Amino acid sequence: MGANEPLVRNISDTARWAAVYRARETERPNPLFRDPYARRLAGARGEEIAKSIPFSEKASWAWVARTVLYDEFITEQIQQGVDMVVNIAAGLDSRPYRMALPPALRWVEVDLPGILDYKEEILRGEAPACSLERVRLDLSDGSARRELFAHLGRDAKNALIITEGLLIYLTEKQVGSLARDLAETPGFERWVLDLSSPGLMRLSQKNMGPQLSASGAKFQFAPAEGPGFFSPFGWNDVDIRSPLKKAVQLRRAPFLMRLVALLPESNGKQGSRPWSGICLFAKQA
Q: How many other CB atoms are there within 10 angstroms of residue 144's CB atom?
C-alpha cells in the first residue's frame, strides 16, 4: 500500500476487517465455527486494519458472537423451509462454502463488482455446498435494486434476506427505503439484520470512527426506536438475540462484559445504553 494510503480505503475494506476475526476464531484449538477461507480473504490488509483499531481488538468477542448468531438463524430458517438466501452487501462472507447447506438451496450474493471480483479470485477452485450466484450491483441505485429484487422474487417462495454488518453504514432514509423494497417483493419472507443502539453507535464512533473516516465508511444507523423502526416499512421482529449474552454463554466475553450481561435484557428502545442485537424479522401479513 502507498505511504499515504489509508488502511480502510473504502467500505468494502471493512469486509477484510470482519474476515480477520473469523480467521482467528478458526485458528483457535476449539473454534465455535470453522472458516478455512477467512485468512486468505482477509489478507495482510485485513490484519493491519484490525490491529490499527484497539477498540475493535478488545471487542473481538462481538465479531465472533455475531457470526455464530447469523449462522444459527440461517440454519434454523433453512430447516423451516427457506428455499433462497439473498445476502445483500455480501462482502467476503464464505457461508456457501463453509456451512452444511442443502445442495438445492439457492444462495445469491449481491455487492459491488470490486469486492466480488476479489472474492472470486481468492476462492477460485473451491466448490460451494449449494447453488451460488453473484450479482454485481451498487445497492444505492434504487431502480436497479428493485429490478433485481423483482427478478429474484419471481423464483422464491420463501426467501431469507441477510444484511450482516451493512445497515449501520446507511442513513435512516436509506434503511427505510431498503426495508420497503424488501417488504414489497413477493417471496421475501424473513430478514436477519444486526442492530445497534444510539449509545453503542456513539461509543463506536468515538473509538473507531477516526480510522474509518477517510474511507467514507461512517457509522450512521442506530434508530432510537430500536427494532420498532422497521414496523412502518412492513416488518415485525420475531426473535432478537444478544451477541453479549451469546459471547458469555460461549465463554468468549471478558470478565467485565460478563458482569454487564447480568443486567436485565431489553429489546425495545435503548437510548444511551450500549446495546446490540441480531434480529429476525418477518414480513407483515
A: 13
Q: Cell digits for 40?
A: 486468505
Question: What stretch of H or E contains 193?
Answer: strand 188-196
In sequence order, what DSSP letters do the residues of 35-96 get, joined into one string? Answer: -TTHHHHHHHHHHHHHHT-HHHHHTHHHHHHHHHHHHHHHHHHHHTT--EEEEET-TT--HH
Q: What is the pLDDT of residues 30-87, one digit of tens each?
A: 999 999 999 999 999 999 999 999 989 999 999 999 999 999 999 999 999 999 999 9
Structural domains of the chain sorted by starting position, each given as residue range(s) with its CATH number in brackets: 60-283 (3.40.50.150)
Name the pairing type of β-strands 131-136 and 188-196: unpaired
Computed from CA positions of residues 33, 35, 41, 45, in that sequence, does the dihedral angle turn out positive or negative? positive
Minimal CA–CA distance to 118: which of 35, 42, 21, 5?
42
Single out the residue of 34, 56, 54, 107 nearest to residue 77, CA to CA: 107
